[in-house]
Amino acid sequence: MRAEVEQLQAQNAQLQRAVASHAVVDQAIGVLVMTAKISPQDGFTVLREISQHTNTKLSSIAEQIIKHAQDAALPETILAELHTALARRR
C-alpha cells in the first residue's frame, strides 16, 4: 500500500511539472506569434528547431524567449538559431 501511494505521488509530481512546462511553452509561442507575426504552429516549430539545433530542452528555450521579450539578452547561439528559424518561415 505504501509503495502504491509513493508511486502515485511521484506520478502526480511528474504531471505537475509537465503542466508547468506546457504553460511556459504556450507563453513562448504567444510571444513569437505576437512579435514575429507567425502562426502558433510555426511558433512551436521555431521553438522545437532552436531546441534541437542547440541541444537545449524545449522548456528552457521557451523560458529564454519569454525573458527576451522582457528585454533580457539571449545567448548568441540561441539568437542566431531564432533568426534562422524565423527566416525559414518567411
Task: Label this structure with key terms.
90 residues, mainly alpha, 4 helices, elongated
Can you walk through the features of this model?
Helix 1 packs across helix 3. The chain has 4 helices and no strands. Helices cover 82% and strands 0% of the residues. The chain is elongated and about 55 Å long. By secondary structure, the protein is mostly helical. It has one domain. The N and C termini lie far apart (57 Å).
In short:
This protein has 90 residues and is mainly alpha-helical. The protein contains four helices and no strands. It has one domain (2-87).
Write the layout of secondary structure elements.
Layout: H1 2-36, H2 40-54, H3 58-69, H4 76-87
Helix pairs in contact: 1-2, 1-3, 2-3, 2-4
Structural class: mainly alpha
Total DSSP helices: 4
Measured between the Cα atoms of the first and last residue, the distance is 57 Å
Radius of gyration: 16 Å
Question: What share of the residues does DSSP label as strand, in percent?
Answer: under 5%
List the domain count as a whole number.
1
Q: Share of helix among residues?
A: over 70%
Order of helices and strands: HHHH
Count of individual beta strands: 0
